[in-house]
Amino acid sequence: MNFRPYIVITGVGIFLLGILVVGLFNAWPKSGTQTTQKSTQTPITVNLEISKAPKLEEVVTVKLKINLSAFKTVFKAENTEAGIVLPDGAVKVDGGLDWKGDLIPEKPVELVAKIKFIKEGNWGIKGHAKYIIDAKNSWGDADYIYLNVSKHSGSFGFKGLKSTEETVPLE
């Protein structure tokens, strides 16, 4: 009977130790993994939007919202550069794709452009912003939209690609 409490405590101790080890293992960063949630560590955040997934030659609106978080800095980000990068299969119809200026905390800047796709295929649009602090430090963020464009329809994501095929490179 003297061994029962020892066995129960040991069993509970091993169980708790196992939970601790699994928790630490899952929290450790894994090489080569990608996250599906956006987690920006700098004060600058961007959000890229498109009015709809367009078909070929259909004009749509693309918006890039750039914000400097007051929760992460009280300083303005002078000479910040931002832009919307279109793939080879798309052209600007109207509006602006580039911006350079001073970001002030919680006073977002928005780029708005009308675009259309002139080629069918799988395409990616990139929105980005970057503020260079000095030669070794910067703040920035990027966002992406992936589309499949055809003559009769448009959809979000890439279609018809096998996992081994290359996708459209983004700059």
Looking at this protein, list some descriptive labels.
44% strand, 9 strands, mainly beta
Question: Can you describe this structure?
Answer:
The protein is mainly beta. The chain is about 15% helix and about 45% strand. The chain has one helix and nine strands. It has one helix spanning about 5-25, and strands spanning about 45-50, 60-70, 75-85, 90-95, 100-105, 110-115, 120-135, 135-150, 155. A hairpin with a 4-residue loop joins strand 8 and strand 9. The longest helix has 25 residues, at about 5-25. About 15% of the residues are buried.
Secondary structure layout plus pairing:
Blueprint lengths: L2 H25 L16 E7 L9 E9 L8 E9 L4 E6 L2 E6 L5 E9 L3 E14 L2 E13 L4 E3 L15
Antiparallel strand pairs: 1-2, 2-6, 3-5, 3-7, 4-6, 7-8, 8-9
Concise account of the structure shown:
By secondary structure, the chain is mainly β.
- Roughly what percent helix? 10-25%
**Secondary-structure element order, N to C:** HEEEEEEEEE
Q: First CA to last CA: what distance?
A: 71 Å
The Cα radius of gyration reads 24 Å
Mean pLDDT: 81
- How many strands, what sense, and barrel or not for the largest sheet? 5 strands, antiparallel
Q: Which residues form runs of ≥5 with pLDDT under 50?
A: 19-37, 162-171
Shape: elongated
